[in-house]
Specification:
By secondary structure, the chain is an alpha/beta fold. It folds into 2 domains: 8-105 and 257-284, Leucine Dehydrogenase, chain A, domain 1 (Rossmann fold), CATH 3.40.50; 108-250, Rossmann fold (3-Layer(aba) Sandwich). The protein has helices at 22-32, 49-58, 83-88, 106-117, 134-145, 158-171, 184-191, 237-244, 252-268, 275-285; strands at residues 8-14, 37-43, 63-66, 80-81, 93-97, 100-104, 126-130, 150-154, 176-180, 196-199, 225-228, 248-250. Strand 7, helix 5 (134-145) and strand 8 form a beta-alpha-beta unit. Bound molecules: 2'-monophosphoadenosine-5'-diphosphate. 2'-monophosphoadenosine-5'-diphosphate is lined by residues 131-136, 155-157, 160, 200-203.
Length: 287
């Protein structure tokens, strides 16, 4: 594709941005679907984020993604947010709708889509979420929307787990929501009637690849599904333990790909085929 006078601009705002896969993913989609746009990484320092967001509007950007540490802060610079953003409090995708910035969260939908793509259904299932940060919140919200039976939350800082549980209970008054102490004994007891376990913490992420959020082998069983939001490495220690127990696993790259597909659809109206870029991403992640 040649850049010309009508080339549209998309991008990613974050800091730092060294290892992002988003430009690879979106530029591959744009080329495949023959769209005259480019997707650029914008590494913006915290003191310049406001000017950057305003400047992008002045440049008529079609939209952009937002990553760490701006997913919450960017909301203050938007004209409108979607319903899920009002609950989650974090935006990862912004659409420039004729000069009006609208914020969305595609991380949450991307997660459950990654499960469906692997043939895993969450409706009426019992879920254990490890962690209670921004990622946990988005995932939990989507799980409630998709009709899970029970959500248990366990976090190192228990007050955060309790806050998330309360928010979820306010959102869905009919669902069973529980907080679990973050210790092995409690986790082993809880996991007995759990179908899907999700690590939303950064434990196991490069360079700490030898760590798993739970080390005890009895935590891992072939009848459960184990998901990790970490994608570097692709197979975290957590997923390795699960695989060794014969369990089904879903890695963080799947979630990354599907959140990107939903963002791409918001900007272009085309829902792209995630398979187009999966191989490229795996190659880019090779050590
Ligand atoms: P994000 O928005 O990516 O979820 P975050 O809000 O900083 O990031 O949340 C990170 C999550 O990983 C939190 O649940 C954090 O636990 P705390 O609330 O106790 O900080 C969890 N986490 C990070 N490092 C951890 C570790 N070494 N052990 C257990 N939990 C950890």
């Amino acid at each position: 594709m040649e850049i010309n006078s009508s080339t549209g601009m998309l991008g990613l705002l974050g800091y730092p941005l060294k290892h992002t896969l988003s430009p690879l993913i979106h530029n591959s989609f744009l080329r495949h679907y023959g769209l005259n746009m480019v997707y650029l990484p914008f590494e913006v320092r915290p003191e310049e984020i406001k000017q950057a967001v305003e400047g992008l509007k002045a440049l008529s950007v079609r939209g952009f993604n937002v990553t760490i540490p701006y997913k919450e802060r960017v909301i203050g610079f938007l004209d409108e947010v979607s319903r899920e953003v009002s609950f989650i409090g974090a935006v990862n995708t912004v659409v420039n709708n004729k000069g009006k910035y609208v914020g969305y969260n595609t991380d949450s939908k991307g997660f459950t889509r990654a499960l469906t793509a692997r043939g895993i259904k969450v409706k009426n299932k019992n879920i254990l979420i490890l962690g209670a940060g921004g990622a946990a919140k988005g995932i939990a919200f989507q799980l409630v929307k998709e009709g899970v039976q029970k959500i248990c939350i366990s976090n190192r800082t228990s007050a955060r787990a309790e806050k998330l549980a309360k928010n979820l209970a306010d959102y869905s008054n009919s669902m069973y929501i529980d907080c679990i102490d973050f210790n092995e004994k409690e986790l082993l007891k809880t996991v007995e009637d759990i179908d899907v376990i999700i690590n939303t913490t950064s434990v196991g992420m490069h360079p700490h690849t030898k760590e798993a959020i739970v080390e005890n082998p009895y935590f891992y069983h072939k009848n459960r599904v184990y998901c990790d939001i970490v994608y570097n490495p692709l197979k975290t220690r957590f997923l390795e333990y699960a695989e060794n127990a014969g369990a089904k696993t879903v890695n963080g790259l799947d979630m990354l790909l599907y959140q990107a597909c939903y963002a791409f659809e918001l900007w272009t109206g085309i829902y792209p085929d995630a398979n187009l870029v999966e191989h490229k991403c795996k190659n880019a992640l090779k050590p």
